[in-house]
Amino acid sequence: MNDSKLRQFFLQKKPAFLASGLAKVSARVSTVSTIVATLAVTALVAGCGGALNASIGGSVAGLSGGTTVVLLNNGTNALTVGANGTFTFSTQITAGNTYDVTVETQPVGETCTVTNASGTVSNTCDATTTASNYVLGTLSGLGSGKTVVLSDGTDTSYTVSANSAFVFPTALSAGTAYSVTVVTNPSGQTCTVTNGSGTMPSSGTITTVVIACQ
């Protein structure tokens, strides 16, 4: 085949080649799954004497590596979080005022939900107040339409119905012991717990509890 025929052959085939390539890219994009990250928020009293202020913060679980989530408190004070663990907004809230944590920008390919997102900072001074945190973990292998009931020793009947990150609703003070167990297994399945027990640290987050169902 001479050069002119080769060029003519390539020009005839090129559109089909490009269309095939685009179809493959579209198929790959459509398979991207959504991962749910959970943000647990709490108000920490900063100190006693004079005006009481609170630092608004919490913990994030289920965020994939290399992604970030941007948070707001009361529609301002933007905070970018790039890793699982604790976070604290830079602006404190004076006692008697409210806080409301929202997601301004979701991570790429993921959806973050906020637990305990809003409330009012207490004006009661407690000199023994310590940092508090949440028992958090991840669930995998749960069958469609099924649920598993968990306990951390404080919340004794916490139902999880999706494979994702989860956070027990009650904050625990630093030094409090926790023990995550399965109260009720999903129908036809058995769930096992890894990293299920420990003591709440004075800073940072606990080692993420891992629950796998089969």
Provide the descriptors you would attach to this structure in a database record.
single chain; 214 residues; mainly beta; Immunoglobulin-like; 2 domains; four-stranded antiparallel β-sheet; 1 helix; globular
Outline the structure in words.
Helix content is 13%, strand content 43%. The protein has 214 residues and is mostly beta strands. The chain folds into 2 domains: 33-121, Immunoglobulin-like, CATH 2.60.40; 130-214, Immunoglobulin-like, CATH 2.60.40. Strands 1, 2, 5, 6 and 8 form a 5-stranded mixed sheet that branches. A 4-stranded antiparallel sheet has the order 4-3-7-9, with no helix packed on it. It has a 4-stranded mixed sheet with strand order 14-11-20-18, with no helix packed on it. Strand 3 (69-73) and strand 4 form a beta hairpin. The longest helix is centred in the first third of the chain and has 28 residues, at 3-30. It starts with a helix and ends with a strand.
Reported CATH architecture of the largest domain: Sandwich
| Gyration radius, in Å | 24 Å
Anisotropy-based shape: globular
Question: Main beta sheet: strand number and arrangement?
Answer: 5 strands, mixed
Q: Which CATH top level class of the largest domain fits?
A: Mainly Beta
Helices and strands: which structural class? mainly beta
* The number of domains: 2
> Number of helical runs?
1
One letter per element, helices H and strands E, the order comes to: HEEEEEEEEEEEEEEEEEEEE
CATH-derived topology of the largest domain: Immunoglobulin-like
Q: Give the total of beta strands.
A: 20
Distance between the termini: 61 Å
Unreliable segments of 5+ consecutive residues: 13-38, 126-130
> Beta-sheet strand percentage?
35-45%
Q: Mean of residue pLDDT?
A: 74
Instruction: Work out the helicity level.
Output: 10-25%
